[in-house]
């Protein structure tokens, strides 16, 4: 489902998604530079109860954040040249490690994403809003639950 949202509504989506997410969920964030992927993750982390300063792990590929309701494993795969390179940074170890995996630039590793994941696409719209698309890939029941939880309709 695609819709246009204000930055406040985008923050609310991040808050709702943090509350909705459970162990071993994967959130795939897709969007051009500056569309708000890292800001989205900062809000999500804060809602999880993580007090650390959240930065994009561009030079580390993955940063671990503990101390919240769920551990947050924050990937940024922008610099990968081949999707399978994600395994060199321990990707597989994080997928079923009891935390929430969030991947910036997830379209780069689309072939390596798990069977089920939440996909959020962010698009430029104007200075005060973004177009977003939200789907739960691979599980229509959880997608219905997600849409109900965050107040979207499909």
UniProtKB/TrEMBL annotation:
Keyword Transcription regulation listed: no
Keywords: ATP-binding, Cytoplasm, Magnesium, Metal-binding, Nucleotide-binding, tRNA processing
Cross-referenced InterPro entries: P-loop_NTPase (IPR027417), T6A_TsaE (IPR003442)
One GO cellular component, as annotated: cytoplasm
Pfam families attached to this UniProt entry: TsaE (PF02367)
Record's keyword annotation contains Transferase: no
Compartments reported by the entry: Cytoplasm
Domain of life: Bacteria
A GO BP entry: tRNA threonylcarbamoyladenosine modification
GO MF term set: ATP binding; metal ion binding
Recorded family membership: Belongs to the TsaE family.
Entry-linked PANTHER family: TRNA THREONYLCARBAMOYLADENOSINE BIOSYNTHESIS PROTEIN TSAE
Name of the protein in its database record: tRNA threonylcarbamoyladenosine biosynthesis protein TsaE
Organism for this UniProt entry: Ilyobacter polytropus (strain ATCC 51220 / DSM 2926 / LMG 16218 / CuHBu1)
